[in-house]
Amino acid sequence: MVLHRRGRFVVALALLVAAGCTRVGESSSSAGVARHAWTIPDTLRAGFSQVPRTLNPVLATQVVEDSIDALFADKLVSVDSQGNFVPMLAQEVPTQANGDISADGLTIRYRLRHNVKWHDGFPFTSKDVRFTFDAVMNPNNDVISRNGYDDVSSVTTPDDYTVVFHLKRPYGPFVATAFSESDSPYEIIPEHLLGKLHDLNNAPYNAAPIGTGPFKFVRWVRGDRIEFARNDDYFLGKPKLKTVIVKLIPDENTEVQQLRTHEIDWMWQASTSAYKAIKTIPDLHTVLTPLNAYYGVMFNNAKPPTNDVRVRRAILFALDKASLARNLTYGEAVPATEDLPPFMWAYDTTLQPTPYNLTAAKTNLAEAGYGPAHPLSLELYYEQSSALLRTMAAQIQTTLAPIGITVHIHPQVSTIIYGAYGSGGTLARGNFQIAIYQWIAGVDPDDSSQFMCRNLPPAGYDESLYCSHVTDAAEDIALHSYDQATRKRAYARVQQQLAKDVPLDFLLWYKAVQPLNPDLKGFDPNPVTDTWDTYRWSI
C-alpha cells in the first residue's frame, strides 16, 4: 500500500480522493429487510482465505494481518472511505496549517488523545508511540519495511500526550507513513508489555495481543478461527457489534459456499475469479472498492535468467493483458501500464499497456540467447489460496510455451511466499525466478518502498530486487517535495523508467470485491484497511 502527506501536501490527497476513491454497491436483494433469519444479531462472522502469520502489527507482512490487527489495535491516523485523513490515537492530524508540521518540514508533532486505555486497563501514552517506533527500527525484529521510518533522526516525548518526530530531511508522505495507511500500515503496540524484550519475533503477545482498539482478543483456534469481543470502553465510542469471529478458510471455493449457506456474513476481499460466482448468489450485497493495486508478474532482477531485460520484455510481449482481464476477471479488472492506476493524480497518461506481440516476444528471447537449441525453463511461484492466481498461473504457463519458455508452477501458502526476510519468505529472500505478485498500496502515489535500491529486502518491499539509479533519483525528488506538480513530474519519470526496465510486468489493476450479508450496516472500507472503523458496524 502507498502513502500520503500533510500541511500543504493535504491538497494532493484531496485531489486523489476526488479522482477515484469511490465505491460501487451491487445488491442482489433488498437491503431494506430488517434482518434475515440466518443473521446472528450483533455477531459478525467474517471469512478470511489468507491466514495470518502473526497478530503483532509491527511484524505484519500481509494485507490480511492489517485487516485483523485493526480490529484490536489503532493507528495514529487513518483515512475514511473517501481517503480523507481521520485522527485515531492522535487528537488531530498534523498539518503545517495547525502548526504540527514545522515550516521547514523537519518536525512532525502528534498531540495524543487523553482518554485511551489498553485492554488491560493500562493508560496509553506517548511512550507507546516511541516504543513502537523503536520496535520498527530494531534490527532484531522481523519487520518487513522501515521505509519512511528510517527518515527519522529522533523521537521525543515532551509529555505523556505529545510525541515529536524529528526528520533528517523533509519527507512528504510522513503523516501517511508513520502508523497510518501506508504500504506498511503498523498499529501502535504496548510498551508496558513488550518494552523489555530483546526482540518481538517469538513473543507470546504475537498470538494473544492486547490493543487499544474496538474489540478485545479472545482466542485464536489455529486453523479454524480468531474470536474478538466488544471493548465497551473504546475511546471512539462503544462498538455496535458484540462479537467478531474471523473464520480462517484457506480455500476460496469453500468461502463462496459458506456465503451461499449463510455461514459467513462477509467474505474478505474475494478474488476477481470468485466474483462471477458471487454475483449469482441471492440475498447478497457486494461492494467494489477502487484500490491502488495491481496483479503482476514479478521478475527476479538480480539472478539469471530474468536479470536479462530481454527475457523480461519477451514475457511482457507474450502475455495478453486484455485477454487476461476479459477471461479471468469478468470485467472487474483492467489492463495495466505500470503500477499507478488512472484514478491516482500521479498517473502518467502518456503510457499505454504493452500490446500483445508474439513476434516481438520471440525476437527478444532470441536476442537473449534462447531458442530451440537453448530452451528456457522458469520456476513460477504464486499464493495458493486464490482461485484467480491458480488460473492465472496455468494461463501464463500455457501462453509462454509457444515462444519456447517452459514454466514450472509452485503454489505456496501466503505465510511462505510473502513471509518476512527473517522468516525465510520466498520473495523477500529472492528464492524465485518469476512470481505472480499482488500489491495493494495506499492513497498516495509513493512507490519507493517497491522500487528504490535502499529498499531491497530486508530493508523494504523491493522484492523484485530491482535497482536503478535513474529511478532512485526521481523517487528522491518525489519523496522530499511537498509540491504536487513537482511530485507528478517525478512520478512520470519513475513510470517511464519502469516501462523501460520491466522489473515487473504489471498485468491488471483491480478492485477489492467485498461480498456482504445485506444485514451488515456501516461497512465503508477505506482504500487501505477495510476494518478501519468497525466500531461503527452493526448487524
Can you give keywords for this protein?
539 residues, alpha+beta, Dipeptide-binding Protein, domain 3, 7-stranded mixed β-sheet, 25% helix
Description:
The protein is α+β, with helices and mostly antiparallel strands. The chain has a domain at 290-512: Dipeptide-binding Protein, Domain 3 (Dipeptide-binding Protein, domain 3, Roll), CATH 3.10.105.10. The protein has 15 helices and 17 strands. It has helices spanning 10-20, 63-72, 126-137, 174-177, 191-194, 252-260, 272-278, 309-318, 321-329, 358-367, 387-400, 414-417, 448-451, 469-479, 484-501; strands spanning 24-27, 43-48, 77-79, 85-87, 107-111, 152-159, 162-167, 215-221, 225-230, 243-248, 266-267, 285-299, 334-335, 376-383, 405-412, 434-441, 504-516. Helix 8 (309-318) packs antiparallel against helix 10 (358-367) and helix 14 packs antiparallel against helix 15. The protein is globular and about 70 Å long.
